[in-house]
Design brief:
The chain has 189 residues and is an alpha+beta fold. The protein is built from 8 helices and 8 strands.
Length: 189
């Protein structure tokens, strides 16, 4: 499993064995069962997680209607956390739960900053990943604002073809901001 993490890091910055082992020593392994919560609203978030195995969903709930709104999935080779709570030391405003059994590597903010100060390769890696994350968020927001349901669905299929049969359609509909019925119509087209 650590090879997936090493490959992920080295896609940006090649590492020596010593550098990789040092980075890895700052992470903690976590294993969760399907339906378990990684992050729960109103709890403090101590870790940012790299997904080694499994699938998760990040969502907010509307207390008035009971509806959930999914804004992120996390699968192998992706990062996930409540970023605001993690970086600001505040309580979570979202939930992250496991759609499958999951294995993760977690790092504290203190260790993340320490690694960034000590290894320029890690700092560079985090900067590149943050920029790619912002680009992805910008594209998602643009699609949610100007794209219709069919455009959003087609974009999802293009961007995440490996997820379409892995994630329940109800959750994909929530992510796309459409009803399950609308997604069913689009799915048949």
């Amino acid at each position: 499993m650590s090879q997936l993490f090493r490959d992920h890091l080295e896609a940006v910055s090649p590492l020596t064995d010593k550098e990789f082992e040092y980075i890895l020593s700052h992470f903690r392994f976590k294993k969760l069962k399907k339906h378990a919560y990684l992050v729960q609203e109103d709890e403090y978030v101590k870790y940012e997680y790299f997904v080694l195995k499994g699938c998760l969903r990040a969502f907010v709930g509307d207390g008035d209607t009971g509806k959930e709104f999914i804004f992120q999935f996390g699968v192998e080779d992706w990062w996930i956390t409540d970023r605001e709570a993690f970086f600001q030391g505040s309580k979570a405003s979202i939930n992250i739960s496991c759609l499958e059994d999951c294995e993760l590597l977690g790092i504290t903010l203190t260790d993340r900053e320490k690694l960034g100060e000590e290894l320029w390769k890690y700092e560079h890696f985090m900067q590149v990943k943050a920029n790619l994350g912002y680009i992805s968020l910008q594209k998602r927001l643009q699609m949610m604002i100007i794209g219709n349901a069919k455009d959003r669905y087609e974009q999802f299929i293009r961007q995440y073809p490996h997820l379409i049969n892995r994630i329940p359609k109800t959750y994909i509909a929530s992510y796309l901001g459409v009803s399950r019925e609308t997604l069913s119509r689009l799915y048949k087209d």
